[in-house]
C-alpha cells in the first residue's frame, strides 16, 4: 500500500545523542473512528473487530483479478467482491473501497504507453495512469464495470492514487533499476502522442533532469522550475480524473487520497531547482516521485467536491516520527499550519506533522494509517523503525494529535495471524483508551 521510504539522513532531524525515549502518550479521548486495512469481511473476523470497536474497513480489490482480459469480467471474482462488500456492510461497517488500479492486468501494461518510462531508460511496475490515454480508457472501462457489477451500495469512501502502491505520485527514484529516475519520458509525456486529455506535453521535451543544457543551449533555473511544476501537477490531475469518473458513475461518498511522506519541502525545492534537479536537496526521493504536497493539496481543495476529499497519510509513526521523537518534533501541535511554508524548522518535523498541517491548511479532511510491519515489503521500514506493537501503541495517539477523523490499522491479517506480537485484543485496548474506558 505504500512506497518504501529511503532512510533520511540524520542531518535532517535534530537528534540528541543519548536522549532517552519519551514516555508513552498520556491518555487521550476522541470520537475518532477506528478501522483496519486489508479487510477480508470474513464473519468471525468481522465479529471480533466489531466487538473491539472497529467501525471502518478498507476492502481491497484487484483490477487484474476482475478483468483478466480486454472486455472480459471474471464473474466469480465479481460475485466474491459483492459478497465481501455485502458482508462488511451488513455487519455495520463503513467500507472504504480500494478499486485496485495499482494491480493492473498484464494486457493493460502492453497497451501503447502502458508502462511508466524513466529518464534513465527504466520501466516501472504498474501502469502509466498519469500520461497514457489508452491506460486511462482501460481504467475508465474497469471503473464502469466495477460500478455495474459490484456497485457502491454501502461504500463510504473510495481510495484513489496513481502509483503501483496506490498512492499519489510517481514510482520511486530507483523503481526502474537506475538511480534518480524521473517518470515522464514516454512518447505521451514528451511529444503528446497518446497523451491523456487535460494534460500538456513536456515544456522541455528531451530534457533530462540534471542536465545543464536543453535544445542546444543552457537550461535556466526558471525553465526547470516550470518543468517540475508540470511534472508534479500531472499525477494530481490523474487523481482528479479518477474522481470525475467516479462521480459520473454515481459515487457520492468521500475520496481518500493516500499520501506518503512529507513531499518536497519548500526550501528543498528551491535548492533543487537551482541545481537543475541534479540530486541535491532530495533526501527521500520526493522530487522524482513528484510530491509537491502544497501545490497538490491546493489543487484538490479547488475541486467542487473538496468537502468530500480526505488526505490519507499512510505513515503515522514511520521512521521520520521515530527520529524526530527525541527532539520533541514528532507530534502535531495546534497552530502548526500557521505560516507553515515560511517556517525554517520544518525539516526537523516528522512527516506526519508537516503533511497533516498542510492538509489542514488547505481545508481538506484527514485520515491515516500506520506503516505496517517494518520488515514487510513497501512499508518504508528501516533499522530504527518502530515494531508493529509500538506502532499500535503510538500511531492512534498521533492520529488524534494531528486531527484525523479515522485511523486505519495496517493490516487486518496482522491482528489475526498470531505471528506479529499484536492481536485484536490489543487493538480493542487502544480503542477503549480513546473512549476513556480504561
UniProtKB/TrEMBL annotation:
Region (Disordered) residue spans: 365-387
Keywords: Signal
Signal peptide, first to last residue: 1-22
Coiled-coil segments on the chain, per record: none
Cited InterPro entries: GH
PROSITE patterns: PROKAR_LIPOPROTEIN (PS51257)
Name this polypeptide is given: Beta-galactosidase-like protein
Species the sequence originates in: Pseudonocardia humida
